[in-house]
Amino acid sequence: MGTALIVEDSLTDKEVLSLCLENCGITVLTAKSAEEAFDQIKSHQFDVIILDVVLPDRSGFEICRELKDAETTRKVPVIMCSTKGTEMDKFWGMKQGADAYLAKPINQEELTQIVNNLVKKKE
């Protein structure tokens, strides 16, 4: 169905997100930092990127902005996932170019539906 990059430094959250997407037939690659994420992006094409906001080396907001500014990744849908779930956080994430913003703990059905919609829209 497609390939997703999950950028998440929490092992538990990474596992939950990965299993959810893999159960939908999506191939999942992971990164736990911005540096690892950009290394993955250089060597793979992704249909969707799921991005935590709080990462060890850079903010997910910064990463999202950079992805949406780059010609090669501009059209890749980005879903922000964070424990920062206030309306202002969601507003700021969308302002950075995110296609969706989900608060943790993730509702797996909602994640699946959003990923499916964004991947279909991209095709």
Describe the protein:
The protein has one domain: Rossmann fold (3-Layer(aba) Sandwich). It is 46% helix and 21% strand. It is built from 5 helices and 5 strands. Helix 4 links the parallel strand 4 and strand 5. The longest helix is centred in the C-terminal third of the chain and has 15 residues. The chain is globular, with a radius of gyration of 13 Å. The termini are close together. 33% of the residues are buried. The mean pLDDT is 93.
Question: What's the order of the H and E elements?
Answer: EHEHEHEHEH
Strand order of the largest sheet: 2-1-3-4-5
Number of separate strands: 5
Rounded mean pLDDT is 93
**What name is given to the CATH topology?**
Rossmann fold
Number of domains: 1
Shape: globular
Characterize the biggest β-sheet.
Answer: 5 strands, parallel
Q: What Rg do the Cα atoms give? A: 13 Å
Number of helical elements: 5
Q: What structural category arises from helix and sheet content? A: alpha/beta
In the CATH scheme, the class would be Alpha Beta
CATH superfamily: Response regulator
What is the second-level CATH architecture?
Answer: 3-Layer(aba) Sandwich
Percent helix, as a range, is 40-55%
Spatial gap, N to C terminus = 11 Å
Query: Proportion of β residues?
Result: 15-25%
Low-confidence stretches: none
